[in-house]
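Work through this:
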Amino acid sequence: MRPLHNYATKEEIKMAEQIQKTMYRYDQLEQNYIYSLEDVMDKDIKRFWQQGYLAIENVLSPDETNSGLDAIMDIIHGRVIGPHLQFVRPKEKLRNDNERELAIRKLDRFVEYEPRLHALAHHSRILNLLKKIYGEEPKLVQDQAILKPPSGGVEKPWHQDMAYGPLTYEKPVIGVWVALDQAGLDNGCMHIIPRSHMDGPTPHYAVRDWQICDTNVPVEKDVAVPLNPGGILVFHGMLYHGTPPNFSPKRRRSVQYHYAASSSEKMSPKEYKRWFTNEMTNAEC
């Protein structure tokens, strides 16, 4: 995926604008925010399993949020060595720090190298919530940050997280998406299809990304979930979700951690292929 700023072609920008308009809607917003982790009740745990997600504000303090941002920027600019960085332009063509930031779409495998992001991944109150949801201890199985630079953040098409190899567990994986910047309608906040996890695994195709076929996404059911810095979206690994392009002048930086129940094991490659590819139908997207 190429970013949208000055070196994208007119055709790429036009396509991104069309995707923004047709694959996402902006008039249905999340209405059931929970004020803080301390306010999560048993009824909310039940609602998680019914709806597939919970949106919770005021989870991280301003200091924790700023610490997470500083850690991401230190990784981007090479002050922390070890994490994996995904560039959308050849590194040798990047002339300065600003171009470097704009050219990085994704960070991952940073928890073992970056203590500030390790602390967020093992945030005791978040782990306690996951323990309530699972009914057993959670285990961290993936860490990543998908970034949307200003005027250049590309779409992350609709998908289910458990369709990705590292998350192919036999029990539900749960994602915790942490907003470090303001995540709004204009800069690529999360969009979800409530209750879509109830439909089980959906075949994915390599189109713009590893994604659900556009024609199989019930866009009319899309609910946007804007979040303030320090808010989180906790969601089921089978929930349909995606994020539109960021054409705004604002950054949208976030981290996402995935957890599995401690008793959960990886599914077999054969089972994964049957669940998340078109092996059963041979249908194309």
Observations:
- The mean pLDDT is 94.
- The radius of gyration is 18 Å.
